[in-house]
Structure formats: C-alpha cells, structure tokens
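Q: I'm writing up a methods section and want to include an example of the input and output format. Could you take the sequence below and give the corresponding predicted structure tokens, formatted cleanly so I can copy it straight into the document?
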Amino acid sequence: SALARHTVRAGVIHPSIWRGTPLQAHGIGARSYMGGSQWGSSWWWNENIIYIIIGANLFVFVLWQNVRLQAFIHENFTISTRGILKEGRLHTLITSLFSHRDLMHLLANMVTLWFFGAEAVMLLGAQRFLNLFMFGGIVANVCQVLWPLAVRHLPIPSQFRMSPNTQGLGASGAINAVVAYSILTFPNRTVLLYMFFPVPAALLGALFLAKD
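A: Here is the clean output for your methods example:
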C-alpha cells in the first residue's frame, strides 16, 4: 500500500530511524492518509508532491551549472535585503526556495525533505503540506531580509550580522517547517540517530533547528 511504502521509506532506510508506527497509533490507515486535500485526483498529488518539489530543486541546480545562465539565476533565484527592498525582486521570496548551487546543500535538504516530508504528506495531504512548505520558506526568507536591518544597531558579535547585499538561497527554511511539524506532532517518539543512538524526537528536532 501507499502507507506501507512511505512507512518503510521514512522509518527503516533513513539514517535517523525512529521506533514505532505513530501513524497507525493515530488510527491512520492506507485509505485515510489524504489529509483533507481538495485537489483533483488527490491520491496522485499525495503520492507525487515530494517528487515534484525535489524535481524543481534539481532543475534549478542544473541551471546553476550553466555558466551562461548564472547571471540570470543570481538575479532571480537568490534573495537579499537589497534585492527585495531596493530592487523590488519580490518573486525571489519564492524562487530562492528551489535554488541550490552546492551539491551537498542540495542533497542534505532533499534527503531531509524525502524522509520527514513523506509522513507530513500522509497527515496533511498534498495541498496542506505544500502550504506548510511554502509558508515556512517564505517566513524564513522574510526574516533573512529583515535581519540586517534589525541588528544594525544592536551590540552583537559580527558573525551574527549580515550585509544587506548578502545573497541567500536554498529550501532550508521550508524544510525546517516540515521537520518542526513532524517533531511537534510526535514529540515523544524515539529517533535512532545514525541507527544507533536513541534520542527523543523533540530534543533532536530542537537541536536540528537551532543548528540552522
């Protein structure tokens, strides 16, 4: 079943494996994981929304590798305080969420999305999951845009400051929202970090978010 495939993917193969079947404990079966999606053919979206997001990120990553397109990508797929507030490139609040220039950055984000996202889709459905993903990413981007202005006159160490010209990119903010949703939904679950070290999900999630 779709639930079985997602459960194996999320709970067995992942290096941060968890014990138990929390979806079943909440009475969610293979026929009831649609999460209230109102899109047409909701089963198709629930099965493929993660692949669509990963595919979009892979596509933009490939564009980054084309030297002729890099000026265009820099302008339209990275976010900065100057770009938003002075140049009016508001679309980068969204496009930067699908932009990775570094392969390891891309892999880390997509692997995290693959495992934590599968369970979130089962609980929320594709439409609400995408709302969570986009809202989390946009809020993170807004914070990045405002940060240089907010800390300009605060007595904080220089490493926590950021130039208004600093360009940001990546899906980390959106994926952190998905991770936060997962650990808040099942905070008492035990996660086997690297398949050996049992860690409470709430603690691991808090450390993961704090690191970012």
